[in-house]
Design brief:
The chain has 347 residues and is of the alpha+beta class. Helix content is 41%, strand content 16%. The protein has helices spanning 3-16, 75-90, 121-126, 132-151, 213-217, 224-240, 250-259, 265-268, 274-283, 295-302, 316-346; strands spanning 31-32, 36-44, 48-55, 61-67, 99-105, 108-114, 118-120, 154-155, 164-167, 177-179, 186-187. The longest helix is centred in the last third of the chain and has 31 residues, at 316-346.
Length: 347
Amino acid sequence: MPAIARLGALAWLCIATPVAAAPPVPGPGDVFDGAYEIERKIGEGSGSIVYAARDLQGGGHVAIKWSKLPVSDGPKLSQRLEREYRAARKVEHPGIVHMQRLGHHMGHVYLAMELLEGEPLSNVIERGPMEVAPAVDLVLEAMEAVAACHAHGVIHRDIKPGNIFVLAADAPGDARVKVIDFSLSKLQPDPGEIDLELTQQGQVLGTPLYMAPEQIRHAGQVDVRADVYAFGVVLYRMLTQDYPLKGESYQDFLVRLATAAPMPIQVRRKDLPKGLSVAVMRAIEHDRTHRFPDLAAFASALRPYSSTAPPPEGGRGYGTHALVAVCLLALGAAVALWRARRRRRGA
């Protein structure tokens, strides 16, 4: 075939062959289920897009988390969102993001949830190491919310600064933080279904730098102590802006996790109270039998360092009050003695 004829045939083939169109993506003005009108995109991850939307039925605004893949192409991704909805709905707590609806739009799963105003804890950490009391206050509130999850048989399995949302100062309600993203959570018991790995075999669930060693080995064989570990790393980061253990690559990190101990937090920040340092390091013990047994025990160890903690008995605050009391008593005794002497002289 002459060269010109071959070029002509190739051009015809390019024109005649249909080009696969990019899947449609929701945008401003689109309406989900006749109930939510998209206003703007506010975030995007590897598997989902998050929008701010107007609630056409209930009024106000919501966040819409929309799976990038349709159910037919991404069943595991869809299952993650379904699990996130069920796990968060199972626990009604002011520190847990409130789920409104699980639905489908254009063949994709979506979640409608409360729209949060503020910033993730990861943004706060980027500004530098936090002072002890504010850091402990925030982490205690997040731990209380996740402890409520544990009481309802839900293990989060993806606690990290990006999943702890610090609310704006003028946000309604009493909560200052909200725990979000339950897509990797483990529900106990889970009758009638296998614990969803939701990834291909050999891949890891969650963010390795915050994951307990046993979770990296097998995500399905974790208990509440995996969340204890994650909160320990989160607090370590809040106080030092660093990680207790890291590597040049994922493989290097795994080797260090198996062979090296976490860097003591007091090495990276020498002004921390000894009891606080001990509590953080116990939470991130690689052997889970050496960790706190649950978040309540961890919280109990942290509470003396919160802004609302009373002065510890026998501690500096108690000693100061005792010294003041002794001085007042001595002063009172001196005044009484002086008055008695004056009376005697007058007599």
